[in-house]
Amino acid sequence: MNLYIWSGFFSFVCNLIIGVYVFSQNPTEKINRLFLLFSIGVGGWSIGSFFVNILEGGLGLQMLRFNYLFGIWLPPVYLAFIHEVLKRREEQKIIVYIGYSISTFLSIFVFTPWFIQGVRILEDSFFRISAPGIFYYLFFAFFSLMMLEIIRQNWQGIRESEGSEKVRRKWLLLANSLAILAGFEYFSRVFAILKSSPLDDYILVIYTFVLAYAIRRYRLLDIDEVLAFHREKLMLTGLLAASINHEIRNPLFLIQEMTRKAKEASSTGGSLAEI
Q: Per the UniProt record, which residue ranges are transmembrane (predicted)?
C-alpha cells in the first residue's frame, strides 16, 4: 500500500493522541473538550482518504461520505474553540451558531450524490478522491469563510495580548494556518486544480507535531495559564474601578453631609454660616 494512503491513517492517530492528551489535562474545562472534538474532527476527516483507497466499490464511497461528516462539523467547532481561548463575549459567538445551523443542513445531504457524486482517480496517480456534487461547493464556500474568520479572530487575539500569552497565540496561529492549508490543499485536488496525489495528510501530521511542541515548550492550551491571564486582566479592571469609586465617593459624601447639615440648620432657624 502506498505511503500517500497511509498518511491519512497517521494523521488520524496523531490528531487523536494530541486531542486526548489535552482533554486529559482538565476534562471539566470547555476549552479542553472543544479541542478534543476539533482533533477528532480533523482526524476523522483525514482518515477518509485511507478508507476510500483500501475499500472497493460502494463501501469505500459510503465510508468517504461518512468521514465528511467530521469535515462538515469541523468549522463551527474550530471557531467555538478559538472563541473560548480568546474569551469572546456571548454576543460575539453568533457566527458559531450560524455555523452549527449550516453544518446541520449539509449533514442531511452528505450521504447523497448531491454532496459527493462518486469517486474518481487522479490523472497523475492511482489515488482515489471525491467527485463533488452541487452541495459540495456550498461546503467549500462555508469552510473557506469560517477559516478566514478563524484566522481573523486569531490575529486579533495576538494584537490584544502581550508577553507569554502573545507568544502562545502566535504558535496557535501557526498551527491553525497549517491545518487550514491542509484543507485547501485537498480541495485543490477535488476541484482538479492540481492532479498529483494530495499532501494534506502530511501537512496535518506536521501540524500535530508543531502543536505538540508548542504545548510542551510554551504551555499552549494550558487552561491554568489561559485562565490566569484573564484573571489578571479582571483583577486590574477591578482595582481601577475601585480607585475611581473611591475618588468619586469622597466628594459625594462631603456634599451629602453638607446638604444634611443645611437642612437641619434651616429647620431649627439657624444660619448657613454656622455649618
A: 6-23, 35-54, 66-82, 94-114, 134-151, 171-193, 199-215
How far is the C-alpha of 30 from the C-alpha of 23, rounded, in Å? 9
- The domain locations on the chain are 3-221, 232-274
Task: Give dist(CA 35, CA 39) in Å, integer.
Answer: 6
State pLDDT tens for residues 196-244.
777 888 888 888 888 888 877 877 766 445 444 444 444 444 445 444 4
- Confirm if 79 and 54 have CB atoms less than 8 A apart: no
**In this structure, are residues 120 and 131 in contact, taking their beta carbons and an 8 Å threshold?**
yes
117 φ, ψ to 5°?
Answer: -70, -35
Alpha-carbon distance 209 to 20, whole Å? 15
Q: What letter represents residue 234's amino acid?
A: L
Q: Fold for domain 3-221?
A: Rhopdopsin 7-helix transmembrane proteins (1.20.1070)
DSSP designation for 250: H
> Angle between the 30-46 and 57-86 helix axes, to the nearest 10 degrees?
150
Task: Kindly indicate the confidence band of residue 257, based on its pLDDT and cuts at 50, 70 and 90.
Answer: low
128 forms beta bridges with 121
pLDDT, mean of residues 41-68: 86
Q: Which three cell numbers stand for residue 194?
A: 492540481
- 240 to each of 88, 139, 231, 253, 256, how far by Cα in Å? 22, 47, 14, 20, 24
- Among 11-25, 57-71, 108-122, 192-206, the range scoring the smallest mean pLDDT is 192-206
Q: Coil, strand, or helix at residue 119? A: strand
Mean of the per-residue pLDDT values of the chain? 80
Q: Which residue has the cell 449539509?
A: 106
